[in-house]
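Why should sequence recovery work at all? Because a backbone constrains its sequence more than one might expect. Tight turns favour small or flexible residues, buried strands favour hydrophobic ones, and helices have their own preferences. The token representation captures these environments compactly. In the example below, the structure is given first.
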């Protein structure tokens, strides 16, 4: 799986209440969730994100409550990949379950800046900052997790027989 896009970047401890504020949890419509993604931390998020862009963050991304709404909002907003120094455990699993590509790479998360163009080959475990030319090694997901993400989530993977 390859992702290429421009970077939006945030710091440490970006919690699920910031990713999708609780006041919008009365809907499960992905488009409605995406319309409010990150609005409490960055009002310009929706206007600056294009399909395929990459979100980079610091430590403990997705901490807070265990709502699946958070990775759904990110994915539906057009983000193709989240690179972070580390993820909250429940967010990490929720992201995989809904088919949002994520990877932990502290070196890349530290070095890559807002607005840079990045290419990630998740099968090979290589992230390249096309703006600076620097490359970073990350651990590729096992094939079954790559299949879940490629299928668009756990439910789609199960329906298509990928997990059999």
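From this structural description, the recovered sequence reads:
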């Amino acid at each position: 799986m390859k992702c290429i896009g421009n970077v939006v970047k945030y710091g440490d401890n970006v919690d699920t209440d910031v990713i999708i504020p609780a006041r919008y949890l009365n809907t499960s419509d992905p488009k409605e969730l995406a319309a409010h993604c990150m609005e409490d931390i960055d009002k310009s998020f929706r206007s600056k994100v294009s399909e395929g862009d990459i979100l980079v963050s610091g430590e403990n991304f997705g901490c807070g409550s265990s709502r699946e709404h958070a990775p759904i909002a990110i994915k539906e907003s057009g983000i193709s990949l989240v690179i972070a120094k580390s993820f909250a455990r429940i967010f990490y699993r929720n992201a995989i379950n809904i088919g949002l590509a994520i990877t932990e790479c502290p070196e890349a998360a530290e070095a890559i800046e807002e607005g840079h163009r990045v290419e990630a080959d998740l099968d090979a475990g290589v992230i390249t900052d096309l703006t600076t030319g620097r490359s970073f090694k990350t651990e590729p997901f096992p094939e079954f997790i790559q299949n879940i993400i490629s299928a668009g989530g756990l439910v789609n993977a199960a329906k298509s027989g990928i997990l059999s």
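A few observations help interpret the result. The mean pLDDT is 95.
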